[in-house]
Amino acid sequence: KGTEPEKIEIYTNYFELCSRPNWLLYQYHVDFDPMIESKALRIGLMRQHDQLFSNVKAFDGMTLFSLIKLDNEITELESVKQFDQKTVKIKIKLVGQISPGDKECMRLLNIFLKRCLTKSKFLEFGKERAYFDFDNLHELPKYHLKVAAGYKASIDVFQSRLLLCTEVAHKLMNMDTVWDVMERMYRECRPDEYKNACLNQLVGTTIMTSYNKKTYKIDDINWEQTPESTFDKRDGSKISFADYYYEHYKIKIRNMRQPLLVTMPKEKDKNRAKNASEKPRPILLVPELCVSTGTILLKKFEKDFAMKKDLDAVTKLNPQVRIDKLRKFLDKITRQPEARKDLENWQIEFSPDVVKTTATVQVPITVQFKNTTTTNTERGWNNAMKDGIHLSSIPLRDWVIFYMPRDEPKANMLMSELQNVSDPMGFRIDRGQMVKLPDSGRGSSSAILFSSAIKDTLKSSNIQMVVCVLPNTAKDVYDIIKQTCCVEVGVPSQCVTSNILNMNNMNKTKSAITKIAIQMNCKLGGEIWGVTIPLKNIMVVGMDFYKDSSKKNMSVAAFIASLNGTQENKLNCTKYFSRCHIQPKGEEFSSGLNVFMLDALNKYFERNNTYPDRIFIYRDGVSDGQFPMVQEFEIPQLKNAFKTINENYNPRMTFLVVKKRGNARFFLKGDRDDFTNPPIGTVIDSTVIKSPGEFYLISQSTNQGTVSPTHFHILEDTNELPPDRLQIITYRFTHMYYNWPGQIRVPAPVHYASKLAHLVGESLHRQHAPSLDDKLYYL
Quick one: pLDDT at residue 247? Predict the structure, then answer.
C-alpha cells in the first residue's frame, strides 16, 4: 500500500445522452369536462388525438409537451370513453415554450423515458418508482415467494452533461393470494379466533392487485360484504364486484363468499375527491385478486438463514452481473421498435456503454489501540481487537446482574466470563451483585419484576451499570428495562438474552461476551480505539431522525457532538455528548438545535477550557427537496448558538448532508476485463455529481453483491478546506464506530445519532436522564 492517494478509472451505472436534443417544445395545460380521476384514462382519451401532434407528444395526464404548435391558443376537442361511449370535452391551452436548456426539460425527458419503458413492457410499480417486468418472475417455491426484477431509471443534468442513471431493483411478492392466506388461517385457527387472527396478520401490510399491479395498504377487513355485494358507479347505476371485474378485466372470481379488504384513499385521492365536492369512499378489494408484497414478507423468515442466502443469491448481484444487466436494459429499450421510433422523433440517442470517470483511493488509515496499531483495515481490525488494550477504560466496581431463576447458571457464568475477557482489554470489572428475581410463573410479568428490582436495588446502592439476563426477546420487557435505567434512574444498562449464553458452545459464547464487555466499557464512557485527526480544536456533530413508534405523529431528533479534539494529529473525537428531542412528525427540521449546540459547546469548554475553532456537521435523513429548509431553518439555529456564547465567537463550520440510499453504483475493471467492486476508501467527486460541493465515498467492502457508496453534499462551508482534505477527514470518521471493528458507511457520529434516535423512538419515548449525556449508553 502506498502513502499517497491513488488515481484510478471507475465505471458507473450512468449512460450519456450523446447530444442534447435540438428542439423548441410547446407546453400545454389540458382540462377534461367532466373531470376524469383516472390518470390512465386521461392519457387514453388524449391518445385519440395523436395525429393532431404528428404522433410527437408527451402527456403525463395534466401537462402536454409537443414539437407541434397548434393554430389557436385554446383548442377544444372531444373524445369518447370506450367502456360507456360517453363523450368527454377536452380543452388544450398553450402555456409556454421550452428549450433543451430549461429545467422543465428534465421533467419532459423523464416522462418520455417512462413512455419508452412502458412500450418495452416495463411497468412502473411501488414507492421508489422502479420499472418491473412482471412476465419474468424468479420463484422461490420453498418459501412461497416470487421476486420481480426491474430497474430504476432517471435522466438529470450532471455538470452540464445529460446522464441516464440506471440501477437494478427487486420486488418481493407472495406466491399465495391474500385469500389463500386467509383460508390457511381458517384451517389453523379456532373459529372464534379466525377474524382476529386475520386482522392481526393482514392489517397494515402492503398488497398488490394482480389485474393492474397497483399497491394498497390494508386498513381493515369488511366481513359483511362479498364479491356479490354491489356498489354505486359514477353514473348512479349499481354493479356487483364480481361483475365489475369481469366487465373490466375479464376475470371470473372463484369464491363468492370471501370478505373484502378495506383500504382508505391515499392523500392525493382525498384531495381529488374534495375538489370534486364528494366525500372519499373506502376502497374495497377482493382478497383472491391480491398478493402481499414488500419487506413484511421477510418477517417470518427473520431467523431463517437458508432463506436469506437463497434470496441474496437472486438480489445481491456482483458487479459483473449488474453491469451486464444494465447494458441489456438499455439495449432492450433502444431496440424495441415503438420506443426506437420515439427516440428518433425526439432526437434522443444514448451512449452504447456506461460512463467512465476518475476516482481517488485514500491511503489506508491506521487504527490505534493503547498497545498496538494496525493499517491492515480493508476487512476490519477484528484480529487487532483480540490483543488490543482499550485506549481508556472506566473501572467497573459497583454493578449488578438481574436474572430469572431458570437463568441462574447462565448469569453466574456471565459474571465470571465478563471478568475473564475484560482483563486483557485493560478494562477492570470487579465482581458485581447478583439479584435473582421471583419466578414470573404467577402474578407479575417479567417486565414489572425487572423494573421493580432495578429501582429497589439502586435506592440503596451507587450502581455504575445494570446488566439484565432476559429470558426471551420480548419487546415489552426490553422497553421497560431501558425506560427504568435510561430515563428514571440514569444508569447505563446492558441487556443479554439467555439464548446467547449457550453453555454447550463456550467458544461462541465467549466471543459474544467479549463483544458485550466492549459495549459495557463504551456505555461507561471508555474509549476503545482511535485514529488521528489532522486538525486541532475541532468538533464533529452527527444528526438523524426517527419516528416515534408509540406516538403516531411524533418523531425523534438526535444530536451527537464530540468533546475532545484540541490537538492536531492526535486520537481525537472519541468522547461524545448526546441529546434528543421529541417533536411533531411534520417538523423534520429540529427546532431544538440552538439548545443542543449551545449545551455541546459548553460541555466542550468544560473539558478543554476552550471552544472549538472548526465544526463539522453530518446530517442524515434529508432529501434534495428539503435542502432549502435545512439552510433556512437549521443552519441559522447553529449560528445563533455561536453568537450566544460570544458575539465575536464565529467558528468555521462545514454542514454536510449524508445520503445512504442512492442509485449510483461504481465498478472497477480488472486485468481480465471483468468488473469488481472499487477498493475501500474510493472517492468520486467528478462527472456524476451535480455541483462541486458533492462527493461519493466507498468506505466498506462487501463479500457479496455490489458495494453501495455514500453520498455527501455540502450545504454550508466556511472551513474552506481543500476538497481532498475534507474527504480524508470524513473517511477517518467512518473508522470510529465502537460497535463494529471495521469501517461503516457513514461517519461514526451520524451512526451514533441513528442509534440514539432508534432507541428513543422504539423504547424510551422520552429524553434520557442528564447523567447519560456524556455516555454512549444507546449502543
Answer: 86
CB proximity list for 493: less than 8 A, separation 6 or greater = 465, 466, 467, 468, 481, 482, 485, 486, 523, 777
Supply the pTM of this predicted model: 0.89
Mean pLDDT of 661-683: 93
Whether 89 has a pLDDT exceeding 90, the answer reads yes
Query: Strands 290-293, 356-361: parallel, antiparallel or unpaired by DSSP?
Result: unpaired
Hey, which residues does 322 pair with through a beta bridge?
A: none
> Which residues are 171's β-sheet partners?
148
616-637 pLDDT, tens digit per residue, is 999 998 888 889 989 999 999 9
Query: Maximum Cα–Cα distance for the chain, whole Å?
Result: 91
- Tell me if 433 sits within 8 A of 457, measured CB to CB: yes
- The reported pLDDT for the residue numbered 276 is 47
Delineate the domains of the chain, giving CATH numbers in brackets: 24-98 (3.30.70), 393-524 (3.40.50.2300), 538-660+716-772 (3.30.420.10)
Q: How confident is the model at residue 279 (pLDDT cuts 50, 70, 90)?
A: low
Residue 350 dihedral angles phi and psi, to the nearest 5°: -100, 150
| CA torsion, ordered 112, 115, 116, 117, to nearest 10 deg | 120
* Residue position matching grid coordinates 388461517: 185
Characterize the bridge pairing of strands 538-547 and 493-497: unpaired
- 774 versus 378: the higher-pLDDT residue is 774
Contacts of 305 (CB under 8 A, 6+ apart): none
